[in-house]
Design brief:
The protein is an alpha+beta fold and 624 residues long. It is built from 27 helices and eleven strands. About 9% of the residues have low confidence.
Length: 624
Amino acid sequence: MIPYILYSALILTACLVFYKLLLQKETFFHLNRLVLLSCMALAFILPLVPVPYQLSFRKIAVEKPVIVTDTPVNTSTTAVLKEQPVQPTLAEKTEQFVNFESITKLLFYLYWFGVIVFAFNFLMQAVLLFYRAYSKSVIQDGKFRIVEITGDKAPCSFANTIFINPEKYEWETYNQILLHEKIHIEQKHTIDLLLAEIVLIFQWFNPFAWQWRKALEINLEFLTDDQMLQQDTVEKESYQFSLLQVAAPQFPLSLTTNYNQSLLKKRIIMMNSKKSNVHTTWKYFFLLPIMVLFACLFNQPAAQSQTLAFKEKEEKQERQSNIQSGMETEGNWFATIKGNTVNVQFKSDENDNSNSTFQLNEFKDLPRDKQGTFTLTREAGTMTFVGKFEGDKGMGTYKFTANTAYSAAMEKEGIDLKDDEDRMVFFMINIKQSYVQMLKKNGYSKLDKDQLIPLAALDVNEDYITSIKQAVPDIDLEDLVPFKSLGIDQAYIEEIRKSGYKDLSAGNIIALKSQGIDAKYIKDFHGSTTSKKNDKEAKDGEDQEDKDDDIIAFKSLKIDQAFIDSFKKLGYNALSNDDLIAFKSLNVTPDFINSFKKAGYNDISAEDLLALKSLNVTPALLLE
C-alpha cells in the first residue's frame, strides 16, 4: 500500500513540475483544466497498469543467472550446505527484519490516521456547506440558487448555489459577481475542486499535492475570467475594478469557488497577457512520454505478472483438480466406470463438489447390482464406500479415515498434516512418504505441504527432476511446477541453447515456452530481423538479454515475416527490432504510411512515423 501511495505522489509531483515549467503561463485554460484533471486520475491509475515486458526497465524477479561450468554439480553436497544454519547472521537478519517491519507498520498507521483526519475535515466542510445552502432563504434564478449571507465574507459558489452578501456591492459589481459564479456553476468547477480535495485526503503528506490543488483553483479562475471578458456586457477595466472591490482576506471553505485575494494579482496579469499562439500546443504532447517513462521505470512488467500469476494459478488448479480444499471426510459419491478407470464425484453438501479419477484395480470387490461395502487404501488413509453399481454407474456414501502412522511419519519429514482436510488432499493425490524422501535426496530439503501438492499432482518424478537438473542445475522447486505443466523437458532446453541462447535461466525458459517459442522460431527470428546494436556488437554477443526480450515480444505481438516484408516493400529495409515492436504496438501499418505518401510526405523516418501515430496526426491534419 505504501509503495503505491509514494509512486502516486511521485507522478503527481512530476506532473506539477511539468505544468509549472511549460503550461502554467499558457492561455489555453480549457486544455490546462483537462491536463490537471487527467494527471490527478493518472497518478492513481498508472501505478496499477502493467507494461509490456519488452518496454519495461524492470527485470523479472524470478530470473537467476545460471553459470554453466564444466564441473558437475554434486546435489547432495549442495543440500547439506543449504541446511547448515548460521545462527549469528540469522539473528541479525531477524532483528533487522523486525525493525523494518515495525517502522513500516508505524508508517502505515500514521498514513491512515492522516487519511481519516482529512476525510473527516472534508465531510465537515460538505455538511457545513449543505447546511448554509438549505437553512437560509433562497432566491431561485433558473437553475441557480442564490443564498444571501451577512457579514464581511467573500462571495463563492458550490454546486448550483451562490453565496453572496448583496448589501456590500453596487448593482454593477453585484451583477458581475453573479455572472462570474454562474460560469463556475455552468462549467461544473465544483467537480474539479471536489476531486482535488479527495486527492488531498490520500496525499495529505505530499506538499506538491497541495500545490496541485492551488494550481487547479488558479486555472479555474483564469478560465472564468476569460469567459467573463468574452461577454458583450463586461468591460475589462470595469471587471478588474470589481475584482479589487470584491477580493477579501478571509479564507473560505476549500470546496467552494471564491474570490481569493492572494490570487487577484495573478488573475489581473493573466487577463492582460497576450493570448498564446496555437503553435505552442506542442508542449502538451510532452506529457505522454513522461507518463510512459514513469510506467516503464516503475510499473510491474506484464510478462512478470503473467509468469507469477501463471505459477500461482497452476498451484491452485492442481490443488483443486483432484480434491477441493474444503472437501469433507464424509458425504455422498457418484461414480462411472470407463475402461480401466473409475471417475468418482464426491459431494458433501450442496456447494461442495469434487471429481477424482482412480484406477479400477485399486478397488476390490465392487458391489454390483446389490448394496455393499468396498474400500480404497493408500498410505494417507482408507476411504470406505457404501453403495452399489448398476452396470457402469454407482452411487452411495463414503467416509475417510486417516492413517495416524502416516501423519506421524510425514511430520518427521517436516510436513505438518494435523487437519483432516490436509490428509484428504494427500490421500486423493496419493503422496507417499517415499516421494518426500526422493525430493530431499535431490536437494530440496525445505518442503511444505503446499509445495508437495502440485508437484505430486503433476507427477514430477525423480527421472524428470534428474533430466531437468542436467540442463538447469540450480532449478528451484517452485519452477518445476510450470516446467512440468508447460511440457518443458531436457530436449527442449538443449534445443533452445543450440539455437544461440547459452545463458538460460528458469524464468527465461518458462517465458519462451509459454509463448510457444522453439528453435525454428528463433532461427526465423534471427534471419528476418535487425538488432538495434551495430554489427560488431552483435558479433560480440553482448546483447543476449535484449534478444530474449525481443523474441518474446515478437511472438506475443505476432510479428511475422509477412509483417516485416510489408514495410520492406515501402523502402523500410533497416527497421530495428525496437522499431518493429513499436510499429506493432502502435498499429503503424503500410496503409498508414501510404496515406502520408499520397499527401506528398515521402521518406518519413521510422521515428517520425511513431511520433505521428502516437499523437494521432493524420495527413488531413497536416494539410489544414
